[in-house]
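Weekly puzzle thread! Below is a chain. First person to post its structure in token form gets bragging rights.
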Amino acid sequence: MEYQVVFESENILFVKLNEKLIDDYLVMVNDPEVASKISHKVHTYTYEEELDWLNLKLQEKALCYSMIEKQTGDFIGNIEIMKIDNNIGELGITITPKKQNLYYGTESIKALLKYAFDKLHLNGMKLDVFRTNLRAIHCYEKVGFIVDGKGKTNEDIHMVIYKK
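Winning reply:
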């Protein structure tokens, strides 16, 4: 499959969103375990809804990238700088079930931070994570995020990292 590579890390290509990946996106976002970690309101998405999401992201020129495993060409997940306020980006990441627990979260976040700091010249990154999502919290801490209080809801914690 042809991809438009934006940046890469040792094992991952970070590519522009691609309509040919919609079936992979749907497997990921409609997985109950994944959905319960990324949304307070779990919803089953249709192909049309995912296509609308994709087209909106492309129209907005969103800083949202699909991750492709270099060795196999398999879809890993999506990673995004969702908003930028005062030169601080907001990180979002979702990894498809069969690619979890393979250290792609750590590698992809490190690569996105390098891209955000070196190429986009951001000063930091923030995120909110469910306080019960211990695996994600551990991953964020491993790459240097620190807890910075309560998140958007009482179920979340807010974490930050700043450019060194």
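Puzzle host: Confirmed. Bonus trivia for everyone else. Residues 9 and 41 are 33 Å apart (CA to CA).
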